[in-house]
Specification:
The protein is α/β, with parallel strands linked by helices. It has one domain: Rossmann fold (3-Layer(aba) Sandwich), CATH 3.40.50.1820. It is built from eleven helices and eight strands. Helix 1 links the parallel strand 3 and strand 4. Helix 2 crosses helix 3.
Length: about 270
């Protein structure tokens, strides 16, 4: 277990993989954390890559300072963490909220991004998505973990995954009860400010976009906006997957990312 203090905030991180491997940074979804987000990815990615998993401020084992958060602040925290760890540049990946953090980082620190991987994420918040997240915030304000579970789970997983994984979801209720609701609310409110679409053309790194075919929350429409806006982007759709595609289709998810990283590295040789 390791921590770095960045701008007065303690940030939790962990390394996986060979010391001399290319660095791959994984950014978590809003309700997830470094310890649980990537259970199906860490082993696969760390065979060849030096994988950095961490919790952004307000998340997991990092500090949860009060007040407003911003994507720019998250990006600065990640830049500070990489500086503390003597990492000049890295492959930057993120799912959902982590994908928005990754975009903010790529826009603010383009020289530090070797490639960008954006999974089930958005560059803007449409009115329908805003309504969903506002319902999450209302549930958070109630302080009722079961209510928050009920309003989020149908958006985060496909119907087939929900039907097939009832024991897993029952167990997840325990984790919901341990969430810091004010911190999660601050993260959700930060998300509602996402507005990167007009600047996507400034992202210069090779970019892999992954979208779950059945992602009801941040679906294919948003992935296509990313694809149109980022000059060096490719889009892959995971058939049958919901929003949490790294859990629902882990083998296909991992294969797409490893193939993309391999091709990116070959181009750089």
């Amino acid at each position: 277990m390791a921590f770095c203090e960045i701008d007065g905030t303690k940030i939790f991180y962990e390394w996986h993989g060979p010391d001399d491997g290319p660095v791959l940074v994984l950014n978590n979804g809003v309700i997830m954390n470094a310890a649980t987000s990537w259970i199906f990815q860490t082993e696969a990615f760390s065979q060849e890559y030096r994988v950095l998993q961490y919790d952004c401020r307000g998340q997991g084992q990092s500090d949860h300072p009060p007040g407003l958060y911003s994507m720019e602040q998250h990006a600065a925290d990640l830049a500070g963490l990489l500086e503390e760890l003597n990492v000049e540049a890295a492959h930057i990946a993120g799912i959902s909220y982590g994908g928005e953090v990754a975009q903010a980082f790529a826009l603010a620190y383009p020289q530090r991004v070797e490639s960008l991987i954006l999974c089930d994420t958005v560059s803007e918040v449409g009115p329908e998505l805003e309504l969903v997240v506002l319902s999450w915030i209302d549930a958070l304000k109630s302080g009722d973990p079961l209510m928050f579970f009920h309003v989020t789970v149908p958006w985060n997983f496909s119907p087939a995954f929900i039907a097939a994984n009832q024991p897993l979801l029952e167990d997840a209720k325990k984790r919901y009860a341990q969430l810091d609701f004010p911190a999660v609310q601050a993260l959700c409110e930060c998300f509602l400010q996402v507005d990167f679409t007009s600047r996507l053309g400034k992202i210069t790194a090779p970019t892999c976009i992954i979208a779950g075919e059945q992602d009801l929350l941040k679906g294919l429409r948003y992935a296509e906006i990313l694809k149109r806006g980022i000059p060096q982007a490719e889009l892959h759709v995971l058939e049958g997957a919901g929003h949490a595609s790294c859990w629902e289709r882990p083998q296909e998810f991992n294969a797409l990312i490893l193939d993309f990283l391999g091709r990116t590295r070959e181009r750089d040789l």
